[in-house]
Amino acid sequence: MKSWMTTSLCVSAVLAVWQGLIAIGLLSHTLVPSPLEVGQYLVGAVRDGTLWDAFSVTLRRLAVGYLAGAMIGVPLGFLNARFTLCHDSLGLLALGLQALPSICWSPLALLWFGQTEWAMFFIVVMGTVWSVALATEGAVRNLPPIYLRAARTMGSKKLHLWIHVIAPAALPFILGGMKQGWAFAWRSLMAAEIYITILSGFGLGHLLHYGRELHAMDQVFGVMLIIVTVGLAADKILFGPAERSLHRQWGTDR
Amino acid sequence: MKDQMPQAVLAPPWKLQVEGVAKRFVTRTRALAALAPVSFQVREGEILCLVGPSGCGKSTTLNIIAGLERPDSGVVRTDGHLVGEPGPDRMVLFQEPALFPWLTVLGNVLFGLKLKPCLSRVERLAAARFYLKLVGLEGFERASVHELSGGMKQRVALARALAPEPELLLMDEPFTALDALTREQLYGDLQAIFAHHRKTVVFVTHNVREAVCLGDRVLLFSPRPGSIREEFLVSLPRPREINNVQLTELAARITRALKLHMGPDAKEVPA
């Protein structure tokens, strides 16, 4: 309750200062809309459905691309940790490609898939998969060896060891990697949506892009606010509870 | 305490035979002989303590018996069969409890039991509950590992090691990380458990009194490369009290022998 109050107080203060600066004319109105105008834009965009359409298009792309990326990345990480051959080949590839900003995939995606959903999917997957794979591999490699020794003396080996010891022991760190992968997926998608126009659906990135083209600053600010909110919500709704429950079980919470 | 007939005549059914086991560790700069060829035997139901300074290879010996490390030469037999991979017939109690934090207390004890294919679900649960009660942790089944004290964790680890009813219990300084009070309580509890559920045990420690308190026999290891220098039979009546006068006297005798074997530069022998 207390932290909730701190948060709302802080947000109100920012809004008040923002509105105040505009009222006394310190901020150029051509470049900065007032919070009221941003609110009006958001209400209007919700009413005529543009915001919801863009929101659902973006979220669908994000969910599908991220899930696919994570589902490839986690097993890939396990393979790289288990087999030296995979580590020396795919692991090196992952390390290299992880350093490549995923927007750099967009020329390739456009040529390969055209202006289609597949291009978006490809960019988001490429943004996710490598970082998730690297985090998973790191998590497995840095496990305390005592868990493995204890499990082995109890007769656990091979697949049993991987499913019942290595995977659960690495889970908190894999979750960290998934969270990082999510951040990469979200950044990739926003960059791609701003950069590539796809006729099958306008996402939040497009809305932001057209806001600039039309010089609709209320739209630019409004959409940015939504993008920030999505990021916060993912943390609070998706990763927060999962992390908390793990911390409680492991006794690593404060 | 045991009869003193020559071994060849008695030919007892050795539970564990360690024959000429040696181990070298090769680092980037040099090869280190950790264990000179070591041979000893353990009878069914006997508690054998390996005592020596740190780095004398006693833990390495235990790891080799467990199958966690391979010897460079020599063999280990349990009931006459060669030992290879680690397996639930030889359970290990480590210095750390090594419990799995993603499982509850009950889940931890069940882990080893689930790897025994002959048991039904009900039998496994019954066994886990029985051994948790045996170590005095009845009612903690649902607790998370981190909610337990160090002593309680080591008790869970003991229950986990005992539950699959291993042929051999290997204990690698399991009480070193505990405070003195908890340790003394565990000496008593462990003896009470072994009094009713006799186990063949190899117990590694650098604490001579601990060895005398728990062991039927104490083997003295020399510093690196480790080898057996002397053997002591402990025939004191059980249960033994760690502060008992006779126990202390024997411990002092073994400590003197240990210092002798360690040479003049040895100063870190715990009394």
What does this protein structure show overall?
The complex is a heterodimer of chains A (254) and B (271). By secondary structure, chain A is mainly alpha-helical. Chain A has one domain: Orthogonal Bundle (MetI-like fold), CATH 1.10.3720. Chain A has helices at 2-23, 35-47, 50-82, 84-98, 106-113, 117-141, 145-153, 158-195, 204-213, 217-250. In chain A, helix 3 (50-82) runs parallel beside helix 6 (117-141) and helix 8 (158-195) packs antiparallel against helix 10. The mean pLDDT of chain A is 91. Chain B has 271 residues and is an alpha/beta fold. Chain B has two domains: 29-89 and 166-271, P-loop containing nucleotide triphosphate hydrolases (Rossmann fold, 3-Layer(aba) Sandwich), CATH 3.40.50; 100-165, no CATH class. Helix content of chain B is 34%, strand content 24%. Chain B contains eight helices and ten strands. Chain B has helices at residues 7-10, 58-66, 105-114, 121-134, 150-162, 180-196, 208-214, 245-262, and strands spanning 14-26, 31-43, 47-51, 73-78, 81-82, 90-93, 168-172, 200-205, 217-221, 228-233. In chain B, the strands form two sheets. Chain B has a six-stranded mixed sheet, sandwiched between helices. In chain B, strands 2-1-4-5 form a four-stranded antiparallel sheet, covered by helices on one side. Chain B is globular. At the A-B interface, helix 7, helix 8 and helix 10 of A face strand 6 of B.
Write the layout of secondary structure elements.
The complex is a heterodimer of chains A (254) and B (271).
Chain A (H helix, E strand, L loop, with lengths): L1 H22 L11 H13 L2 H33 L1 H15 L7 H8 L3 H25 L3 H9 L4 H38 L8 H10 L3 H34 L4
Helix pairs in contact in A: 2-10, 3-4, 3-6, 3-8, 3-9, 4-6, 5-6, 6-8, 7-8, 8-9, 8-10, 9-10
Chain B lengths: L6 H4 L3 E13 L4 E13 L3 E5 L6 H9 L6 E6 L2 E2 L7 E4 L11 H10 L6 H14 L15 H13 L5 E5 L7 H17 L3 E6 L2 H7 L2 E5 L6 E6 L11 H18 L9
Parallel strand pairs in B: 3-8, 3-9, 6-7, 7-8
Antiparallel strand pairs in B: 1-2, 1-4, 4-5, 9-10
Helix pairs in contact in B: 3-4, 3-5, 4-5, 7-8
